[in-house]
Design a protein that fits this description.
alpha/beta; nine-stranded mixed beta sheet; 16 helices; 28 strands; 25% strand
Length: 547
Amino acid sequence: MSIYKKYCIETKDENGRLTDIKIDYPDDFNFGYDVVDAIAEETPDKTALVWCNTENEERIFSFSDIKKYSDKMANVFKDAGIKRGDRVLVILKRHYEYWFCTVALHKLGAVLIPATHMLTSEDYVYRMNMASVAAVVCTSQDGVPEKILGAVKETGSKCVLWCTKNTVPGFRNINEETEAASEVFPRQKTAAHDPMLLYFTSGTTGYPKGVIHDFTYPLAHIVTAKHWQQAEDGGLHFTVAETGWGKASWGKIYGQWLVGCAVMVYDFDNFEPKQLTSVINRYGVTSFCAPPTVYRYLVRKGIPDMPTLRHASTAGEMLAPEVFRKFTELTGLKLCEGYGQTETTLLMANFEGYEPVEGSMGTVSPLYNIELRGKDGEKTPVGEIGEVVIIPPKDSRQIGVFTEYLNDREQYESVWRDGVYHTGDAAYVDENGIYWFHGRFDDIIKTSGFRVGPYEIENVLMEHPAVTECSVIGVPDAFRGQAIKAVVVLGSEYVPSKALENEIKDFCNKKLAEYKWIRILEFVDELPKTISGKIKKTTLRGENEEK
């Protein structure tokens, strides 16, 4: 029996669709002890992690291995003075040490702060100051140690510094210390509602916000792994994500291990479709999840036969319909989209038991009570755009929703106004109960009295063979209030010209209602993006990004 069944009761209909889920947990629930160690005790040889890199190195870890190395690393941290509630910045790319480190920090009751190696020294300064970081564990690659040392000098921090693999001046070697540490680590006192995880969001405006989740957060990802990604007990799940991003929590540890599925990790720097599919086939990956960008490359490069792959999912941004169709044509699998935020877990998806609806958000997760509401706070009718809001349960605490914004009670109360959580995302539901993303409320274009979501136009733009990337915004217009403008990055074989501009506009406008027509089109070499790859529409609109 998968261990997740100890913590939830699922109700399904005759089609195998999840209709209800009740999550229960002890007051001291801790993923490190109650999931990792419990599986290690029951099935010590069960595979937890399959790791390889571009240098053809390979490591396969059982749950007993994860228990052993996390206990040893927890002893290293404890001996250095790290304790319950301390915040630890972890920058480990796709190195397997991340999984030891994460579980070790959970066992200590310390707060994990994942971060990407792509940040600048100034970004690390911001995080150290905001979170009062007690320690840093980082990769020895990509100049990260130098950036960390620069940040430590600027902040005057006394935090403990560890580095992986190589011995770096100013850092302790986490691998050497872990090997020398004791394997015995008695259970520490922690509580289910202690802070466990702190993500700095890379929003499209302002400085990153610190989003804090408690120790119940992993349990909310049961739905993510089992009913959306369809990770299987004894299977091998592969989510393409670096550990500095929230997507790693969605697809590389919590839900997957709860349902008894091993995690595939490919440690690479530069994405190469052939290498990715080679890993899938070499290790027999059974379920796969990746951001839309990966699928765009895969279908453009052509996908070889992947006989062991039984399910594929995607999330993070809208995916053009042509990519859905081509992927299905090449693999026989239908892509299942999902939707959620850093502040939540999976809110909506094309779930198990449902026929995936191309380009949709799918249906609402039974873990949440979700409505679409207008500005008046009233529920919007079928077909009308409203904001996605979460209504908390009256008789229990909502799991899977963040507990606070770091050092910003005002912002927390703002998004939780009127007794509901405001996502800021716009959507509508059709007559079949399927939800459709319409953009951020801030991004909605109001033109000639109509409300237009940029994504529906971007999807049409992406169907043109010359368009590699695009973003649609509203710009001031004397007659329409706002005119629709497309900003386009062309494929390498295309050259900007007035003729091509007119061709793309005509191609799209023939497929769009007149009020959605592209009035202005601009070619650019690249689109402005956040560190996590989200297109910064505020920059395109010429708005001030700092609050």
